[in-house]
Structure formats: C-alpha cells, structure tokens
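Quick note —
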Amino acid sequence: MQFASKLPAVGTTIFSVMSELAARHNAVNLGQGFPDFEPPLRLREALARAVADGHNQYPPGIGVGALREQIAAKTHALYGRPTDPDTEVTVTSGATEAIFAAIAATVGAGDEVIVLDPAYDCYVPAIELQNAHAIRLPLIQPDFTIDWQRVADAIGPRTRMLIVNSPHNPTGAVMSAADLDRLAELLRDTSIVVLSDEVYEHMVFDGQAHQSVARHDELAARSFVVSSFGKTYHCTGWKIGYCVAPPALTAELRKVHQYLTFATFAPAQWALAEMLAEQPSHHLELADFYQAKRDRFRALLADTPLTLRDVPGGYFQLVDYSAVRDVDDAAFAQWLVKEVGVAGVPLTPFFQTPPDTRLLRLCFAKSDATLVAGAQRLAAIEI
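Predicted structure written out below.
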C-alpha cells in the first residue's frame, strides 16, 4: 500500500545512526548524549524496593503524587516559584514526550513556531505534525547567542509558540537574566506561549546560575518548562521527565498526555520521589560533577589537532576540526568513526540551513576511562 508520509524529510535520528556506526566499528562513542556510568546507588536501590513493594500497576496519569510534590518543592527552592503539584506539575515519559505534548496541545494548523537554530531534532517534527510551520532563526556564532532583533522581526499574527533551550543542545550556550527580560518584553501583550527545554538545568558552570524561565514571573505565566530526570540522575533509559506550567497550560498538556502515554513507569516515579526526599543535594552537586568532567576532557583534548569552543553549560563539547579535514561535518563524522575510532555527532542535522563551519559535537558525560580512550585516539590523528 502506498501513502504520503506526514514527515517525508525525517529518517533515523542522527544519534541512533552514530551509535550504531560506533558499535559496528568498535569506536569510542562520544556521540549520543547518554552517560556510560550508573545512576546513584540509592536511586537504584529505591527502584528495586518500589518493584518489591508492589508499585507495578498504572500510576495516576499525571504522575505519582509524592513525586509531583517533590518536583513542586524543588521548583520553589531552586527558582523561587511557588508551584501547585496538583495543577502545575505533570510527569511524562521523558522530556521528549513533554515537548511533543506541549506543542500538540497548543499549536494548530497554520500556526507558526519560532525555533532557534541549531535546534534539537525533536522540535520541528512535532510542529509539522500539527500542520504548523517552524520559523527557524539562526543563533549568532561563535557563541550561539540569541539575535533578539531577528526574533522581534519574526513575530507575527500567526506566531503561536517560541521554543528556547538553555543550557543549549548542541552548543552548550546558556541564556542570561537579560535574555529572559528581553523575551518577556517581546511577548508582552501577545498570546504567544513559550516552550522552555531545560533538561540540562543542573549543568551550568563556572559559578553561574541557571536562568530558568520559571524564575521570571511574567514568562512563567505563559510557559511550559520541561525537565529531565534521565539527565539529572544518569538514567536516560528510564525515560522520566516532567513539565511545570500554569494551570491552564497544564490542563491542555494533560489532554494530550493522557492519550499519548497515559502514564509513566510507576516504580521509577516512586524511586525518584524517595531520592528527592532523602538526597536532595544530588542535583545541587551536579554542576561541579560535570564541570570536573568538562575540564578533564578539555585538558585531554589539548594534545589533539582540534580547536575547542567554550562550554558554559550542558555536557557537550563542540570542536572545530578545520585543521584536520576540509570536508562537511557528516563526512568528517563518518571518517572519524571508521578511520580514528571515535564517534561524534555532526551539527548539520540541528540546522535548517547549516552554516559553512567545521564543527562536531562530543559528549563528555562519560567515565574517565572512556574520555581518556577517546582523547588518545583523537591525539593520534595525523594532519
């Protein structure tokens, strides 16, 4: 049977492609963004207890009450935002589900959604599935800051949503308090909603604070703020995320969520609730943990022919490979896996119109042994 694809330009995600290629060539996988070390022992033990205690059937669709209460308390403590666990917090099957549900709940046919390039690859397909249009605006290189004048010029009568991501994947750029003020100024007196992807919220470095949209009263009133337990607790395979939004937006998101996944893995929710209650310092220590990995990785890469971009947040290092090969990033990524034995991720898939740059994304959310092995292979590159 033949039919017209609703997403004709979408194939297998670049992350799966590079991980499969890494496995095939026995390469060090610095591509896909997952840790190769275990979640905290306390959390793993809590998961086993939750299973043994019988938390194995459908939980409440919006999330286990104990976990939603901990999320609300955490949001208030971190960002000064009082949050109602019953009307403003929804537990989802990963941050990706929360992002899709937020878009599907509020964006309609013919609407426009402003997306800042490079952008994580799940945004645009979700927009296109609503028969809406992604208006993609480039960030300003080399630091990937937001061109607020271009954003202002792009806002029009069809603009329904604006998506921001800080710390940013793939670049590691972070938004400032001044950015939040400018965003609020541009959206004032409009009905535009904000989708703020903050899955790396606890990985902001060098003494800086994460500027969550939840910190800003004016923006919080019109925003979906999406977070990830998978990123925070090194358990990406559990696929547990959540969304904090004002009651009216939460009600709409839940309408989609209940028919998308209905509910999220119950034992993990109970385990995370216990972890947040008994070891609340974990997420507060995460910035130092990943900054040490960032600094270690950058020191190891000093002996390679790669030029390093700054990393204010997240757990990815952009490298400029201009001194190695004058080829596009897809070709370089393939060459690097096959000939050097290291997998990275090209930036091209994050753009609508890729710039003429020579950049590759490497993940440093890895064990020291993995980082050393990858760096040793990169240092052996001959130019």
